[in-house]
Amino acid sequence: MAIDYLRLSLTDRCNLNCIYCTPLEKGRYLAREELLTHEEIARAAGAFVKAGVKKIRFTGGEPLIKKNVVELAGMIKAIPGLKELALTTNGVCLAALAGDLRKAGVDCVNISLDTLKRQTFKRITGADRFNEVWSGVQKSLRAGFRRVKLNVVIMNGINDGEIAEFAGLSVEYPLTVRFIEFFPVNTRSVKLTGALLPTAEVKRRIERIYGRLLPAGTVKGGGPARGYSVKGAKGGMGFISGRSGYFCGSCNRVRMDCSGNVYPCLFSPPVHNLRGRLRSGAGCAELARDIKNIFLVKSEYRKDSASAGHIEMSSIGG
Ligand code: SAM
User: Fold this and answer.
1) pTM, whole model, 2 decimals?
2) Which ligand 1 atom lies nearest to the CA of residue 114?
3) Where are the domains of the chain?
4) Hey, whose CA ends up nearest to atom 13 of ligand 1?
């Protein structure tokens, strides 16, 4: 599988404190000098594109709290050869930024939203910010993005009662709702025992209400999601079964965090750090050579989530 997709974590900080994501040892953030500057991120991104990457996604931490993120989006979008710039966000700052991000060249937005209830939102994220996120969803739908998706991590006993409502959003709005299996992978998420609800059960509950879902084939830009829709719906649905399904064979992605660590697999350790090379003035061709060498060893590092050790989604960005 060609590696043509880079997930770029812009920061290890977040403005939410989710019960399944933010580490219990919150507060141990990277020092300023360890973080890549905008110029370094753009040079690294340029080298990834030279090595074959066609799509870049900003993630985090929360990418929209990164200073001057709109300007950074413009710098990345200007890289010749890049076909798509996407963003995964918790949506808290999106209402204010959606229009500018679109103008700067962001093509697609994924918004992580696990509940439609203000109280449950507070319970999951530690913050009373549901209304801001919902207004970010609405603004995004009007901003002209190519695709808007909602990422919903379903947790048994916490938000599984809302599966039908989320499916209903895909009928009402031109967006894709993606149901994601919960991974118990860090010190905090492992405490949520019994929270995993397999995709097959989520789908069964939706079909009980909406009838048989229509397979949508491969969703363009859908990554590991299997696509479906309800007949006559404005949008679609996707299911990401990181726990019960195994999709390493079709993985086309690589990750870089905000300090320049490159991860061949979400569940692998970083195999290389580009920061030193960037700071010693390495050119694009030289960096692209390093990156191609990482692509070559990607398959040796692949792991499924069930055999993964401890990982922090909150800094690698999912
Ligand atoms: N702050 C941004 C956001 O909320 O979308 C980007 C970073 S966040 C770590 C990226 C995605 O990882 C989110 O959709 C989040 O729900 C997902 N995620 C984090 N921890 C997870 C876990 N334990 N299981 C499944 N998904 C998880």
Assistant:
1) 0.95
2) 16
3) 5-316
4) 112
